[in-house]
Design goal:
With 427 residues, this protein is of the alpha/beta class. It is 35% helix and 24% strand. Its EC number is 1.4.3.-.
Length: 427
């Protein structure tokens, strides 16, 4: 069977050492079979193991192979559509529940890091940077909105204050969220996988789920083995393929590009980001960046709809980096990579159940680091018979992309072009 290694990235090159995990070779029996060893699957597995379930995790490649091990590494609260948009769509009662959960994912990450001693360069503090007065107005209303749901670790930054936290003259202000922050995302996933195993869970790598036999005791087939379970959690996100056809029509894989510079040295790094916060701007097609543990600038942005790998990532991202930090014009780019996330038409996550025993969560729409950790807790609660929070997500309305599989990419790209123009001209 072909062995799928990690794609080349700064994260893969600096990953903590872990033992190789075997591929599934025979038939095993378990309470819960989790498909996918990214954050959603690992978070689900951990919560279930902590409540006494037997858990087997199947991973097509390696732990954290997908977006969980390739993302920008930023802990950003709430969802890809904020709570006010949700409230207009579903009403105050459901929005209240979802609003209360909007800041839980970051807390779960910190609890996991502390409880299982995960070495992943965790740093506190995330900045939303405004380029226009309209964006600043949005941050002011966002602060009021988040505070309504009990989230108080927020500070509005005027032009002087934002210069103190990021040496970039594009920004007129911003908002600092001290419960935001950043991590080495692959090392977080690897640490969570080790925690799963420390509690008696089993993870099989190079073991893609190729078919699910549904029924009272569903059976998941891999190329060389089978898992019989009472429940299945489908957590493949943008890497699920067509394993569950019902989930493919309402979502679209998208690629995002990231680069990492050579190490900048303490002085240059501190001059650019003195408090070591991570930053994202407020554009629809946003740029985001932060310092790594060894003081590289990790800079990401742009979306490729339909998840093609662009030929030259550095050519796409380096100009964005130099616009923000012209002082880096002579700095070498050591790594450039792409990773896929799953976009939904509503840009809200899709959560649900197929039949009585197959649960799923997918479609974080670029907001996955915190949401996936919450999703694991919500899925585990549902399997334990506590479904109120699960239902709040499951009841969100979702729609197939117009034109079906064939036209979803051009439609989405057209929308992105429109919003890109809005960003460019500030309207």
């Amino acid at each position: 069977m072909a062995h799928t290694p990690y794609p080349e990235s700064y994260y893969a090159a600096s990953a903590n050492a872990v033992p190789p995990r075997p591929a599934l070779q025979d038939e095993v029996e378990t309470d819960v079979c989790v498909i996918g060893a990214g954050y959603t699957g690992l978070s689900s597995a951990l919560f279930l193991l902590e409540h006494g379930f037997r858990v087997t995790v199947l991973e097509a490649a390696k732990v954290g192979f997908g977006a969980s091990g390739r993302n920008g590494g930023q802990i950003v609260n709430s969802y890809s559509r904020d709570i006010d948009v949700i409230e207009r769509s579903v009403g105050p009662k459901q929005a209240q529940l979802l609003g209360q959960m909007a800041f839980e994912g970051g807390r779960i990450i910190r609890e996991r890091v502390a409880k299982y001693n995960i070495q992943c360069d965790l740093k506190d503090g995330g900045v939303f940077a405004a380029i226009t007065a309209k964006q600043m107005g949005h941050l002011e209303s966002q602060k009021r909105l988040w505070e309504r749901f009990g989230h108080t670790q927020l500070e509005l930054l005027d032009q002087r204050r934002i210069r103190e936290v990021v040496a970039c003259d594009q920004y007129i202000g911003g908002m600092l969220d001290m419960s935001g922050g950043h991590i080495h995302p692959l090392n977080l996933a690897l640490g969570e996988a080790a925690a799963v195993e420390s509690l008696g869970g089993t993870i099989y790598e190079q073991s893609s789920a190729v078919r699910i036999e549904r029924g009272a005791n569903p059976l998941v087939h891999t190329p060389q083995g089978k898992v019989r379970a009472k429940f299945i959690i489908v957590a493949g996100n943008a890497y699920l393929g067509n394993l569950v056809p019902e989930l493919a029509a309402k979502s679209m894989p998208c690629g995002t590009q990231v680069i990492a510079t050579e190490p900048l040295g303490e002085d240059l790094a501190r001059a650019m980001l003195p408090q070591d916060y991570c930053v994202e701007d407020c554009n629809y097609l946003l740029d985001y960046y932060r310092l790594s543990g060894d003081k590289r600038l990790i800079f990401g942005g742009g979306v490729v709809y339909g998840a093609r790998d662009p030929a030259n990532i550095e050519a796409i991202i380096r100009p964005k980096m130099l616009k923000a930090f012209p002082q880096l014009k002579d700095v070498k780019i050591d790594y450039a990579w792409t990773g896929n996330f799953l976009l939904t038409l509503s840009r809200l996550p899709q959560v649900g159940r197929l039949g009585d025993n197959i649960y799923y969560s997918q479609g974080c729409s670029g907001h996955g680091v915190t949401y996936t950790h919450l999703a694991g807790k919500v899925l585990a609660e549902a399997l334990r018979g506590q479904a109120e929070r699960f239902d709040a997500f499951a009841d969100l309305p979702h729609y197939p992309f117009p034109g079906g599989q064939m036209l979803r990419t051009p439609f989405a790209a057209l929308g992105a072009w429109y919003y890109g123009l809005r960003d460019k001209f500030g309207f």
